[in-house]
Give the backbone structure.
Amino acid sequence: MTTAHRPALTLSADEARRIALRAQGLLGAPDRRAGARGVLLRLGAVQLDTISVLARSHELVPYARLGPVGREAVESAYWTGSHSFEYWSHAACVLPVEEWPHFAFRRRAFRARGHRWHQMADREGSCAAVRERLAADGPLTTADLGGGRNGGEWWDWSETKIAVEWLLDIGEVVVTERRGWKRVYDLAERAIPGELLHDDLDDHTCIRRLVRQAGTALGVATRADLADYHRLKGEQVDAVLADTDLVPVEVAGWPRSAWADPAALEQTPRGRHRTTLLSPFDSLIWDRARTERVFGFTHRLEAYVPRPRRVHGYFAMPLLAGGRLVGRVDPAREGTTLVARQLSVRGRRDVEPMARALREAAEWVGCDAVRVERCEPEELREGLETELKAAFG
């Protein structure tokens, strides 16, 4: 580390944890007036994923911060009024439309590379056909455009699918919503407000903005944390850090130096902690190494792990209570019953928060009961079921 970046401030691990929680909107009074749109603006990116257990992950993220916000209101906040677009950030994410210019660097990188995964047999003709259909008929799904696959495996894309996804990558086409979980494509010139529809910003300016935004959303972060938020390279972060106002800090127990949002250092983070179940794709716990460093909690999505090798279940959702990760549950739904297929908590004092989180989640998705199948440790089952009975009593 250069002298210019030598930290003048040291934070305790507890201070860093609370700063991270507040930055993510999980400590302090939620801004209910801003709603899901406000959550998106605060986080800068909300990950999308095909898995739907209680709800899809992009619905679970505002739920965790705001409580049982209407699911239709969440979709409306994302997909109406040109508020957002879908693009490649941490993964496929909903992004505030204001950030469109700052992803110019990624669009340019795709153009320079010439492809993402697939090659087209007739790039010019296939792309022209997609442009013409969208111009004539408005927003369309892949099915509307003629189908996404050639009849083989899921990656055996049709020429039209390859073309529309390529136009998405380079910014000529925008995903304006998900309809029945299908991407809806439109021409960027129609979907993006005119004042934002440009690639004028150079790579340094784009990356500086995204690193700064990641710093705000994380509160305090290492170089690797800042890079991971929008899937940047470490050297890209290095090239712009000095041009941000992020403050170098040391965090007790962290093996590497970090940078903090200066606004996060101005006052001690205080307020009400959310008690909630978190999507495995929530930005609070995106990064396994950061989650272990900040919370001392090992988290891994096991949906893609063979069933015999799963430890905590298909879609284990960590329990956040009192500003700590204190358990997890693998949920399912059977009619109007939320089923905790596998549940674990650290100890007896975490039973009541788990019951409260399960009740709130159940009611949010229209369930009127919770059934616990497997409980670890088993001796806490009776207390948990007593709490659940009282919650629904």
User: Anything to note?
Assistant: The mean pLDDT is 93. The CA atoms of residues 240 and 347 lie 44 Å apart. The two ends are 58 Å apart (CA to CA). The longest helix spans residues 203-218.
